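Hey, quick one: can you model this chain's 3D structure?
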Amino acid sequence: MQQKYLYVLFSATPYRMGQWIRRVTGEPYNHVALATEENLSAMYAFARRYYHTPFYGGFVQERPCRYRHNGVTAQVRIYRLPLTSRQWDILQERLRTMQSQPQRYLYNHLSALAAPLHRKVRVRDAFTCAEFAVSVLSMLGFDFDPNRFYTIGAIARRLEDYHIYTGDFPETYREDPQFFAEKPLRHPIAASTQSILALLWRKAFA
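Sure thing. Here's the predicted structure for all 206 residues.
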């Protein structure tokens, strides 16, 4: 089998939310996503589902256009991890399962709020982008504990031996009109409220 890789991409996203997170954490990057192709034509992460719904998030397949906004291109740091055929099969099965039922997987706002305290709040099938990356890396046998809290910077430092690129997001943009589509004001309010209530309900009763 041809050598397969997992690409781990850390980014300073060009949005107000990303700028605020970087100021709070003091880290150069605020987001982490995973990819299985070198051209990064599709990445997997826990993030907002649409541009206009910053608090309505979950498991998403990101397109490169998310990494450029208002003329600003995201700064990124990319790592390439070689996988065995067994690891590759495990990864593909995990991604297929999550893609088949994306609404099941929620963005973990509780952990995001606790992050400045270096704590994580465990909720079934709910992750921040960092928690998702750690869960996958741990599942594949890399040296991460899925029960521990990791900052994005800490994840990057543990992967330093696999570093291959730092700079502007590579120029392989593909349009994603659904992500940037204008939404009536009631949509982000309703979607965000529903998502947060679902998270609180799951934490309380699951």
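One thing worth noting: The chain has a mean pLDDT of 91.
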